[in-house]
Amino acid sequence: MTTAIIGTGNIGGRLAANLVAGGVDVLLAGRDLGAAQSLAASLGDRATAVAVEDAVARADVLVLAVWFDTTKELLAQYGDQLAGKVLVDPSNPIAPDGDGGFVKTIGAEESAGRILAALVPSGAQLVKAFGTLSAETLTSASRRTPEPAVGFYASDDEAAGKAVAELITAAGFDPVRVGGLAESIRIEVFGDLHEFGALGGPVGRAEALAAL
Ligand SMILES: NC(=O)c1ccc[n+]([C@@H]2O[C@H](COP(=O)([O-])OP(=O)(O)OC[C@H]3O[C@@H](n4cnc5c(N)ncnc54)[C@H](OP(=O)(O)O)[C@@H]3O)[C@@H](O)[C@H]2O)c1
């Protein structure tokens, strides 16, 4: 299974580091090939920088570690080329509120996962994952002991969900499925299972299952 990450920023970079530490080979791509090359060089032999087109062509699992609107653009741009692939979406639909906080950029009852699910090209499967914890926590809670921190995901397709659950494990978290993509609002920012929601931080499996 070939794993690629598009977006070499905060989430893409930290997730790449977690996956490499877990023994996963990753292709890294972004708008700026030089940034992807620098990140790959810092991560060692398991990370390889490629052009976005190559990441799309070669990946079985493609993590879209870019902002929500960019994900929409990439889905439209690559269309049929995404058929047969598992697309992983960590996006949170938020923007600065101009007052030091954040505001949701879509309707209160909407989720990025549901909106993107309707835009996914035929034959591709969307899985929501890696957006429930802040970038800092994605690093600090990876391979936590004694009890691993949960990595929530939402998926409509069993095989796609299983592939992403394996990546969550490799990234140093305990995978817990919240449900289908209709439930992804719960693991996005402002959702009850998000790090900054009712759970108040990364949790272990028992606490996660009790909250489902
Ligand atoms: N940061 C967090 O704590 C956090 C937590 C949970 C979820 N998320 C979600 O994760 C996603 C990424 O967030 P982030 O914090 O990693 O953002 P970021 O640091 O700004 O990184 C975004 C990356 O996307 C790249 N990019 C932008 N447009 C692109 C395009 N057209 N093609 C390819 N790459 C493109 C950027 O490249 P350039 O550097 O060239 O602009 C950058 O590498 C967002 O959807 C966010 O909501 C973030």
In short:
With 212 residues, this protein is an alpha/beta fold. The chain contains eight helices and ten strands. The mean pLDDT is 97.
Give a description of the structure.
The chain has about 210 residues and is of the alpha/beta class. It has one domain: NAD(P)-binding Rossmann-like Domain (Rossmann fold, 3-Layer(aba) Sandwich). Helices cover about 35% and strands about 20% of the residues. It has 8 helices and 10 strands. An 8-stranded mixed sheet has the order 3-2-1-4-5-8-9-10, sandwiched between helices. Strand 2, helix 2 and strand 3 form a beta-alpha-beta unit. The longest helix has 13 residues, at about 160-170. The two termini are about 30 Å apart. The mean pLDDT is about 95. NADP nicotinamide-adenine-dinucleotide phosphate binds near residues 35, 90 and 91.
User: Considering the protein shown, what is the CATH homologous superfamily?
Assistant: NAD(P)-binding Rossmann-like Domain
Spans of 5+ residues with little confidence (pLDDT < 50)? none
Average pLDDT value?
Answer: 97
How are the strands of the largest sheet arranged? Answer: 3-2-1-4-5-8-9-10
Order of H and E elements: EHEHEHEHEEEHEHEHEH
Q: In one word, what is the shape?
A: globular
First and last CA, distance: 30 Å
CATH class identity: Alpha Beta
How many distinct domains?
1
Distinct bound molecules: NADP nicotinamide-adenine-dinucleotide phosphate
Strand content: 15-25%
- What portion of residues is helical? 25-40%
CATH topology: Rossmann fold
Defining key terms:
single chain, 212 residues, alpha/beta, Rossmann fold, eight-stranded mixed β-sheet, two-stranded antiparallel ribbon, 10 strands, globular, binds NADP nicotinamide-adenine-dinucleotide phosphate
